[in-house]
Design a protein that fits this description.
Layout (H helix, E strand, L loop, with lengths): L14 H11 L20 E6 L6 H8 L2 H4 L3 E6 L3 H9 L5 E7 H10 L4 E9 L6 E6 L15 E3 L3 H13 L8 E2 L5 H6 L5 E5 L2 H7 L3 E6 L1 H6 L7 E9 H6 L1 H20 L1 H5 L22 E2 L5 H16 L17
Parallel strand pairs: 1-2, 1-3, 6-7, 6-8
Antiparallel strand pairs: 3-10, 4-10, 4-11, 5-8, 5-9
Helix pairs in contact: 1-5, 2-11
Length: 340
């Protein structure tokens, strides 16, 4: 198979800028290892969308499995990554055309700073204590009744700057001083708890469901970002988003519009038929078929709804990254949202 030439034009991003991004994102990858071998086909019409294998990516899974993209005349391929940082790296280098919901908005923000105008957000997945995505887990036999009870214990979180930052803020708000966390792949969270390797973990679904159903862990608290980071347990935390590269939108506007319409169809399908939509979690995440009905679903908000209070809460989340000096400059969330 001949080498694939990215459809996007050469990026105006020098090596120094890219190495700075890789360092900030905590990645030790080289450019040649941004995606797994065989991830690309020599088909210029293929639309490659990166996803992280969590429940948040459900609209992509539904659109692929239910044929919504095919109905729109699109050849879409989902490409799995082991972290949100790798997804954004793939977008920066032009190797993928966008990302699915569940991609950390903190990582996307870093990508926007590294390469202004990189993408436009088409959908986001808010969560809180009712729309469960984020949670704190402990071993099944733990005596901890609150996060504060874990002081002096070994605490883990998922990989990447967003997970680490959120975990540290949660711990600080529960009385920890100068907390440290261990970065672990999400798939290792429940087994690490059961094996006694860690005493608590900030994680995302379906980890809590897997741990509970397989009796590996128990949930200490859900909706921890809304409560401790945003300061309101009912506030929507826009921690994940789907986006398309701006260059793809500009070069192929009709395909981009068709993609967004098919993606919205998937979001509407999830809202109208959540039980049927759950079936498409299998194969894309670690959740097994016999557990799929137990998984809580986050909400999904298309770009047209990212205004008013939604936009304000999204901006509040990004302002936390600026205050923490994770973002080197403030980001106007409104400027990142697709306008149709």
């Amino acid at each position: 198979m001949k080498d694939l030439k990215p459809e996007n034009p050469p990026l105006k991003l020098d090596r120094r800028q890219l190495m700075k991004w890789l360092a900030v994102a905590g990645s030790a990858l080289t450019l040649g290892s941004l995606l797994p071998a065989g991830a690309f086909a020599a088909d210029d019409e293929e639309i490659r969308i990166g996803y992280w294998p969590i429940v948040g990516g459900l609209p992509l899974y539904v659109a692929l499995e239910r044929g919504f993209f095919r109905e729109a005349g699109l050849n879409v391929k989902g490409v799995k990554f082991s972290s949100p940082q790798q997804i954004v790296e793939g977008m920066i280098t032009g190797r993928i055309h966008g990302c699915a919901n569940g991609t950390a908005t903190g990582a996307l923000g870093l990508g926007a700073i590294t390469m202004p105008g990189l993408f436009k957000i088409i959908c986001s997945n808010p969560s809180n204590h009712r729309l469960v995505l984020d949670e704190f887990l402990v071993p099944l036999d733990s005596t901890a009744q609150s996060i504060g009870d874990l002081q002096g214990k070994r605490i883990a979180c998922g990989p990447g700057i967003q997970n680490v930052t959120m975990a540290k803020i949660i711990l600080e708000k529960n009385g920890f001083s100068d907390p440290s966390v261990i970065e672990l792949p999400v798939g290792q969270h429940a087994p690490a708890l059961a094996a006694g390797q860690i005493d608590g973990v900030y994680t995302l679904e379906p980890t809590g469901t897997v741990g509970r159903m397989k009796k590996l862990s128990r949930t200490l608290e859900t909706g921890v970002i809304s409560r401790y980071v945003l300061g309101n347990a009912d506030a929507p935390w826009f921690g994940g988003a789907a986006a398309l590269n701006s260059s793809f939108i500009e070069r192929k506007p009709e395909q981009a519009k068709a993609f967004i319409a098919a993606y919205q169809k998937a979001v509407e399908f999830i809202a109208a038929q959540p039980q049927q939509a759950r079936e498409n979690i299998v194969g894309y995440t670690s959740i097994e078929a016999d557990l799929v009905n137990e998984v809580p679903l986050p909400g999904f908000v298309m770009y047209s709804e990212l205004q008013g209070d939604n936009l304000q809460w999204f901006q509040t989340f990004y302002d936390v990254f600026t205050e923490r000096k994770i973002f080197s400059k403030p980001i106007d969330v409104a400027a990142l949202i697709y306008q149709g």
